[in-house]
Amino acid sequence: MNKISQNNIIQNILKYIPIILLFISVLNEFDFNNLGLIYFSFNFSYILIFYYSLKKSESLGYIYIFIAGLFNDVVTGTPIGISSLVYLILCGAAAYLRNITLRPSLIKDAIFFLITILIINSLLFIYSGFILNYELSYFEQIINIIYTFLLYFLFSNLFNFFEKNILGNSHVG
Amino acid sequence: MEASRDDFVIALRSAFLKKGTQQRFSLLSLIFFSIILLILGSFNFKVIDYVKITIKEIVYRSSFIVSGPENFLKKNYIIVNSHLKLYEKNKKNVAELNLLRGKDLSQKIIILENIKYKKLIDDYYIADNEIVAKVLIDKQSPYLRSIVINKGSKNNIKLGMAVLDEGYLVGKIVEVNFFTSRVLLISDINSKIPVSLQPGDIQAIMSGKHKRGGVLQYIRDKNLPEINEEIQVLTSGAGGLFKSGIPIGVIDTGKDLEIDSGKVVNFHRDLSQLKYLKIVSFMKEEIILDQISKNNSEVLDDVINSANDQQETLRILLEQKKIADEIRVKIQKENNFLRNESIKLKKESNFLRNENVRLKNDQKNKIQDEEMKFLKMNVYYGHKCRKNLINNGYKVDTAEYRKCVLNKGLKK
After folding, report:
1. Fewer CB in 10 Å around end: N or C, chain B?
2. Does B192 touch chain A (CB under 8 A)?
3. How many whole angstroms separate alpha carbon B160 and alpha carbon A56?
C-alpha cells in the first residue's frame, strides 16, 4: 500500500516536469552562454512549448504558458506581454497542426515548427523594430532560429523517450 | 474547395477556441489578454506598472535561486578551465609583469600630469558615488543583452550610471527598481557609446555586435600612421554621460591600418562572466582658485618633481651601472690576456732552462771526451813529445806538448 502511494507521488512529480522545465528555462535560459560560443544560441522554451502543445497538450496548461511568458519578459527586459503572445501563438500553431494531422511524422512537425518560429520572430521583429525602435541583428536572429530548428529533432526524441519510458505514455509520438 | 475551406476553419476554431482537457482558458482569450497587456503597458498604465514592478521583484529573486545550479556548473567549468591553462598563463603573466614593472613609474608620472592638465581645462571628473553590486541574472536574450543586479533605488542607483568591471566599462543602468536594476551591456546592439581611439585620437560611436565585441559607427575613414601596438578604445566623454578615458576594448589592426565603420572592437572583459560590478556616477571636481587649491597645485607639482627626480636618479644609476659593467668586462678581458701571456712565458723559460742544461752537459761531455782522447794518445805518443836527452820535445803539461800528442808526435 505504502509502495503504491509512493509510486503515485513520483508519477505526479514526473507529470509536472514539463512545467518545471518551462519555468526553469524562462528564469534561467539553457543557452550555454558560459561556454563562450559567439555564434550559438537557441530557444529551449519554443521547443518545449511546441512539442508539448502538439503531442501532449494536457501537460502544459495555457495559463502556465501565459505566466511563463510574463516571467520571460521580466527576465529579458522586453515589454510585458510580448513573450506570452508569442508563446500562445506557438501553442495555437501546434494545436492547429494536431487537428489537421492524421499520420504524425517528426519531419513534418519540424518543418511546421520552423515556419511557425519564422512567423513569430517576424512578428517580434516588426514589434521591436517599428514600434519600440530597437535595433536588431538579423544575423543573430537567423542563427537562433536555425539552432532552435535543428535542436528540435534532438529534444523531440528526448521528450519522446521521457514520455514513453519514464512516464509510460505509449501513445505519444 | 468549399469543403477544404471548412476544414481549415474548423481546425483553426478548434485550435484557438476549444478549451482542451484541464485548460481553464481558451487560447484566444489569453492571446487577447496578452495584447491588452502590451497596449496598456505601452501607454504606461499605472495598474500595469504596479503589476510589472511586483512581478519583477518576485522574478528577479526566484531567478537568482533557479540559476544556482547553472552558476555552480559555470563556476566549476571556469575553475577547471583556468587550472588547465595555468602553466601557460603563468609564463605569460611573468613576462607581462616584468614589462609592466618597467612601465609603472613613468605611468604614475603621466597620470599625475594628466590630472594636472585636466584640472587646468576644467575637465577633471571624480567618482562621486560608487556602489558594488552582485549580478543576479545574466540571461541574455537575442533581443536584449542585459543583466540584472541586486542594487536598486534603495541604494541610490540612478538611470545612466556607468557600470564597471575592474575598471573596464561593461554597461550602463537602464532600469531602476527598488531592490534591483537592469544594466544594458555594451555588447547590445542598442547601446551607443561615444568612444575615442588612441593613438590617433579618432572619435566614433560604438555599438554592440556580438557577445565579445562591438562595432564602430559614425566614423570618418582614416588611415593611421604605422604603429606596432593595438589601438585602445576609450570613452570619449562626449555627451557628459561617462567621464573620458574609461577603457573598453582594443582594435587589432594587424596589417590593415585603415580605420572605418564596421571595425570590430574586442572587449577587455568577458561579458558572460560578470559577477561583481561597480556602479559609478561621475561629477566634475569643483575647484575654485583659492589658496587651498593653489597649495594643492603646488603639492601636486612637488609630487611630480620628486617623481621626475627619482626617475632621473634612477636613470643615472642605471647609466653608472652600465659603465661599471663595461669596465668590469674590459678588465676581465685584459686579465685573461695577461694570464695567458704569463703561462706562455713560463713555458718558454722552462724550455730555455732545459736547453741550457743540455748544452752544458754536451760541452762537459766534449771536454771529457777530448781529455780521454788526449790521455789515450798520451800513453802512445807521450814519449815522442816529451823533452829528454834524445828527444828535442816539449815540457809536460804545456799547450805545445798537448798539441804534439794530439798530432801523434813531432812533425818533421
Report:
1. C
2. no
3. 46
Tell me if A114 is assigned to some domain: yes
Domain at B122-287, CATH from 2.40.10.340, 1.10.357.10, 3.50.30.80, 3.40.50.9100: 2.40.10.340
Q: Do B200 and B222 contact (CB within 8 A), yes or no?
A: yes
Regions in chain A scoring below 50 on pLDDT: 1
CATH of residue A126's domain is: 1.10.1760
Q: Which three cell numbers stand for residue A169?
A: 505514455
B273 touches chain A (CB under 8 A): yes
| Model pTM score | 0.56
Identify whether A171 is part of a domain.
Answer: no
A31 contacts on B by Cβ (under 8 Å): 139-140
Is B209 in Cβ contact with A39 (below 8 Å)? no
Answer for the pair A59, B23: CB distance below 8 angstroms, yes or no.
no
Is A61 in contact with B38 (Cβ distance < 8 A)? no
CB B153 within 8 A of CB B344: no
The answer to the question of residue A59 being in a domain is yes
* Number of domain units in chain A: 1
pLDDT tens for each residue of A5-52: 666 777 778 888 888 888 888 887 555 555 556 677 888 889 999 999
Substitution target in B66, B141, B182, B191 with the highest count of A β-carbons within 10 Å is: B141
Chain B hits for A98, Cβ within 8 Å: 15
In a domain, A131, yes or no: yes
User: Closest to B146 (Cβ–Cβ): which among A66, A69, A77?
Assistant: A77
Q: Does B62 touch chain A (CB under 8 A)?
A: yes
Q: Tell me the C-alpha distance between B358 and B316, whole Å.
A: 63
Domain definitions of chain B by residue range: 122-287
